Amino acid sequence: MTDALTVAVGAAALALAAWCGLAAYRDQPTKDWHFIGMAVVTVLVLVQLVIGVVLLARGEKPDDGTGIFIAYLLGATAAVPAAGVMSLSERTRWGSVTVSAGAVVLAVLEVRLFDIWGGSGA
Q1: pTM score
Q2: pLDDT tens digit string along 27-85?
Q3: Alpha-carbon Rg for the chain in angstroms
Q4: Which of 5, 11, 21, 63 is the most exposed place for a label (fewest CB within 10 A)?
Q5: Which residue, 103, 48, 102, is CA-closest to 73?
Q6: Burial 49-67 (b: 16+ CB within 10 A, else e)
Q7: Residues 6+ apart with CB under 8 A from 74
Q8: What is the C-alpha to C-alpha distance for residues 112 and 68, in angstroms, rounded to an integer?
């Protein structure tokens, strides 16, 4: 996996978490701008998914196993869209909290993907 993309996805996820957390603090639901932010993060994760699949197809192997890598990659791909869908059903501040939590989960998954692939120092 590319370290730069993993860092970019993690940073974008944390920025989204902070942004939606601020909306929750202000007692606001998710708004159109938040969904645009979720779309940007999701596109980055989809790029990461494609790169991960291409690397696996070329025969490269993660240090901690292919199965666990694929599971974490799919989980990372689903984290923010799932939180976004749930926030649509909860049009209060708790929808913003849900997206913020989903984005934090994505950032944690990115750290784990980095470790599974065999990031620097592993």
Answers
A1: 0.90
A2: 999 999 999 999 999 999 999 999 999 999 999 999 888 999 999 999 999 999 999 99
A3: 15
A4: 63
A5: 48
A6: eeebeebeeeeeebeeeee
A7: 49
A8: 10
| CA 40 from centre of chain | 10
Residue 54 half-sphere exposure toward CB, CA atoms < 13 A: 8
Which run of H or E residues covers position 3? Answer: helix 3-25
For residue 109, the one-letter residue type is L
Question: 117 with 69: CB under 8 angstroms?
Answer: yes
| Contact partners, residue 103, CB within 8 Å, separation at least 6 | 13, 14, 16, 17, 20, 41, 79, 80, 83
Find out whether 120 and 4 touch, Cβ atoms under 8 Å.
Answer: no
Judged on CB neighbours under 10 Å (0-12, 13-18, 19+), 10 is buried
Residue type for 114, please?
Answer: F
pLDDT, tens digit, 9 for 90 and up, residues 72-93: 999 999 999 999 999 999 889 9
